[in-house]
Design goal:
By secondary structure, the protein is mainly beta. It has three helices and eleven strands, in the order H-H-E-H-E-E-E-E-E-E-E-E-E-E.
């Protein structure tokens, strides 16, 4: 019982001096108040940092390849959306264009110049030229890939006159023919042709004598035929050759024509037989011959 009391007294005696020393020590001075923010001075700029010292070049090494993204092979990639169905082209849209259409109907006109070197024409002309005007129309009956056959109707009209020893003679010729024409179409703008044109005509002859009271007239018929060839060139329009439309062509033609040789008799007309009895007797002008080469230049319209 005495030992615990004695320990407590010893501890109390040791605590009293330490408490006295703590009371004698001076208190620390108070801390200064912080300066207001407005009065804060701008901090001085720090000097630039010195450049880093050059280090020795490292040994060059190939760059490492970029890391590939991990692909999960267990998951299939998404499939693209299905395409809309495309309609198949119609057979008409892929069919190649056909051959150009051949002229179905052809109407033409132009001069026909014949060179006749026979004695049967000398009585009506001072030279060997017979100029006529030609009109014709043809219709295509047969068509091939590059050929065609046409048949038509032609008309030629023209005449000449001459004066010899006070006698004036003239003849006016009218001829109808049936041209049969074969064509070879080389291109849409040109075709070649060959034709034969059988026909027949009449000649109106007239003789006038200055000493006679009236003219002498006569009519004669003859058979004829032409054999010719040429080419036809398209002037325009140069549009779609498959479309049938009106087109203008120029056609030079060269050939040879033959005719029969009828005799021409002329007699007075317009008076009674009693008045001309013993006067103005009929005259014979000889045979009329019109065979020779000819050239024709036609302007044609086709459709």
């Amino acid at each position: 019982m005495k030992r615990p009391v004695l320990g407590a007294l010893v501890a109390l005696v040791a605590l009293v001096p330490a408490t006295a020393l703590a009371q004698r020590a001076p208190a620390p001075p108070p801390l200064p108040a912080p300066a207001p923010p407005a009065a804060a001075a701008a901090p001085e700029a720090s000097p630039p940092a010195p450049p880093p010292a050059a280090s020795a070049p490292a040994a060059s090494a190939p760059p490492a390849p970029p890391a590939a993204a991990a692909v999960d092979l267990r998951v299939p990639p998404p499939s693209p959306p299905p395409l809309a169905p495309v309609a198949a082209p119609r057979p008409e849209s892929v069919t190649p264009p056909g051959p150009p259409r051949k002229p179905l109907l052809r109407l033409a006109m132009g001069p026909r110049i014949a060179f006749i070197r026979t004695a049967g024409f000398d009585a009506y002309s001072r030279n060997d030229v017979l100029a006529q005007w030609s009109l014709e129309g043809t219709l295509t009956l047969l068509e091939g890939k590059k050929t065609s056959l046409a048949v038509g109707l032609g008309y030629d009209v023209g005449g000449r006159s001459a004066t010899s020893r006070g006698l004036t003679t003239s003849v006016m010729l009218h001829r109808m023919s049936v041209p049969i024409e074969g064509r070879a179409h080389l291109a849409p703008w040109v075709y070649l042709f060959a034709r034969v044109a059988p026909g027949a005509g009449i000649g109106l002859a007239r003789a006038q004598d200055s000493s006679a009271p009236s003219d002498l007239k006569g009519t004669v018929g003859f058979a004829s035929g032409d054999l010719s060839g040429g080419a036809s060139f398209l002037f325009g329009p140069h549009g779609n050759p498959e479309r049938r439309s009106v087109r203008i062509w120029g056609t030079p033609e060269l050939g040879y024509g033959v005719t029969s040789r009828p005799r021409v008799n002329v007699a007075p007309t317009g008076r009674d037989a009693e008045e001309v009895l013993g006067q103005d007797m009929p005259a014979n002008l000889g045979a009329l011959a019109l065979s020779g080469f000819f050239f024709r230049l036609s302007l044609a319209a086709t459709g």
